[in-house]
Amino acid sequence: DGGITQSPKYLFRKEGQNVTLSCEQNLNHDAMYWYRQDPGQGLRLIYYSQIVNDFQKGDIAEGYSVSREKKESFPLTVTSAQKNPTAFYLCASSMAGHEKLFFGSGTQLSVL
Amino acid sequence: DQQVKQNSPSLSVQEGRISILNCDYTNSMFDYFLWYKKYPAEGPTFLISISSIKDKNEDGRFTVFLNKSAKHLSLHIVPSQPGDSAVYFCAASDGSNYQLIWGAGTKLIIKP
Questions:
Q1: Å from A102 to nearest chain B CA?
Q2: H-only helix segments in A50-92
Q3: Residue A1 clears pLDDT 80, i.e. is over it
């Protein structure tokens, strides 16, 4: 079955620690996205990538980094510079030039 | 400045009746609108969309209406079923970079 896989489901971060969230898709989609969801708020775009080896900052990129070395993979690193990382993180993908997104099941990140 | 607003954080509807979820937008350049459904601790799933060249789109129990002059769209679910209990997000795109702007969501509760 085609889809998007995010791992882990739950992740805990210690102060000063960088953590990486995994996102893999086998839908052959060109575009991939990372969103953050906080309680009572809509989804906010962190980073997106329209093509391999290229990515752009979204609305809230500070404290995050990404890479897009393969079409199937778009990992997100939450760095120690992100002072309020506790949130639900969602990865999505789409066909190039299409607004319809397909989402993974999310990663809940919490700070210890 | 929220460009997409869902003013009702929650909505409770009797099973079998009609559920109407509302969404307002401010950017007249938006030309494509989508509704997503989200269960707790899962990623959103696409429900239905509408282009600005239409004023109605229907898919089974789900109908989306677009009123461009009022910058308002609504999602109708008829009849409402227990499995419809979820958070519903409205999203909009202006087609320039295929990025979606999201509302904060409305939690729909279907009462038996």
A1: 7
A2: none
A3: no
